[in-house]
Amino acid sequence: MVKLVWDHKYDESGNSIAPLQIALPFQTIETLNESTQQRQKSIELFLKGQTEWRNRLIWGDKKYVLPSLLPEFANSVDLIYIDPPFDTGANFSHIVEVPENQEDYASFTKLPSIIEQKAYRDTWGSGPTHTDSYLKWFYETIFFLEKLLKPTGSIYVHLDWHVGQYAKVVLDEIFGI
């Protein structure tokens, strides 16, 4: 089987280095359209150290979120769809025009927040190692997703020509051909 090699994939002895696995507790920030009865049930479950997984949106970096899902969801997910960055080199800042009145528009550059700078950038450095950085990131993501999937589960990866061929080799390495 073909394998890709990038900086820090293997240790000095040639053994694969597993991605860092830090599991952090989730924190509920906001609950929408929740009845008083449902809110009380959620509080009681929380006080017992339990949580209910229903209609949750998890916002965070995958290197912390995915390992945090493993204790409850390892080998239990039927379907995963991911739309990772395409390694385009874009940072996705843009100019927005906002009407000041009916005739005039003001322009400003919407600068990304600190979280958006990480979440929506598709830059991986420059030079010969930028693909290494991307592949390390992608490998770590797939490493944890494979642990979440049932043996009969499916994963769909949406990519284009920028890194699709490399991603296929990483997927084959983790899942088998």
Description of the structure:
- By secondary structure, the chain is α+β, with helices and mostly antiparallel strands.
- It has a domain of 106 residues.
- The protein is 34% helix and 15% strand.
- α2 runs parallel beside α4 and α4 packs across α5.
- It is flat.
- The termini are close together.
Brief synopsis:
With 177 residues, the protein is an alpha+beta fold.
Reconstruct the topology from this structure.
Elements: H1 36-47, H2 62-73, E1 77-82, E2 94-99, E3 105-110, H3 114-119, H4 130-148, E4 149-157, H5 164-175
Helix pairs in contact: 2-4, 4-5
Feature tags:
4 strands, alpha+beta, 177 residues, flat, two-stranded antiparallel sheet, two-stranded parallel ribbon
Number of β-strand runs:
4
Count of alpha/pi helices = 5
Helix content: 25-40%
Encode the helix/strand succession as letters: HHEEEHHEH
Q: Estimate the strand proportion.
A: 15-25%
Cα-atom radius of gyration: 21 Å
Euclidean distance between termini CA atoms: 8 Å
Based on Cα principal axes, name the global outline: flat
- Which residues form runs of ≥5 with pLDDT under 50? none
Query: What class do helices, strands and sheet pairing give?
Result: alpha+beta
Q: Average pLDDT, to the nearest integer?
A: 80
